[in-house]
Amino acid sequence: MRNFKFGVWIFCIFLVQTVVLSGIHVFNAVPFIVLPFTVCAALMEEDGVTAAAVSGICAFIAGAFTGRSYIVTALYIFYAGMVVFAVKAKPLYISKAVKAFALTFIISGVMETVFRFIDAGNITVDTLLYSVLPFAAVNTAFVILIYPLLKRTMYKEDKKKLLIGDLV
Predict the structure, then answer these.
(1) C-alpha pair distances (Å), 3 with each of 6, 8, 51, 83, 147
(2) Backbone phi, then psi, for 129, in 5-degree steps?
């Protein structure tokens, strides 16, 4: 059942990405919600194999849909998911929601910078301000939607009923 839910999530993410968000430009940036989904799923997943599978499937499909270099996009998304899974335990005192915001912003900024460098061969301050920063901000904004929905549908914590004897 859990794998089916992941399949539905991935299908819905790519459906929204291709149908709804491909025509939306916010500050000259097209939202790329596959990356926030991959970051959030890797942060909340406890099993490394499942995190790798979700990242790999998202990377495989995203490479085909982005219109950019397939190999670079697929490898970047897969490695981003694996890096997030590896660093999610540190530091312990920061909540996963805050980590999702920070990591999505950083990974999105680095991703867009890499793609702009591949396309143009150099990076200017204008590129960073008018292309990279809006792309990272828009992707980070989608964490507000994806993180709580993913947590509610995929990662419910079992609430145990406390008995009076358990409190003593």
Answers:
(1) 5, 9, 12, 22, 18
(2) -75, -40
Q: Which domain holds residue 35?
A: 28-155
99 pairs with which residues across the strands? none
Q: How far apart are CA 27 and CA 138, in angstroms?
A: 9
On whether residue 38 sits in a domain, the answer given is yes
CA–CA distance, 90 with 16 (Å, rounded to integer): 32
Q: Which has the closest alpha carbon to 107: 57, 13, 153, 43?
A: 43
Alpha helices in 16-95 (DSSP H): 34-44, 48-65, 70-87
Question: Each residue of 32-44: pLDDT tens digit?
Answer: 999 999 999 999 9
pTM here is 0.86
Number of domains comprising the chain: 1
Asked if residues 91 and 126 have their Cβ atoms less than 8 Å apart, the reply is no
Structure tokens at 129: 């301000």
Q: What six digits make up the tokens of 55?
A: 């990242």
Q: How many residues does the chain have?
A: 168
Regions of the chain short of the pLDDT cut 70: 157-168
Answer yes or no: is 162 within a domain. no
- Per residue in 27-66, is it b (16+ CB within 10 Å) or e — as a string? eebbbbbbbbbbbbbbbbbeeeebbbebbbbbbebbbeeb
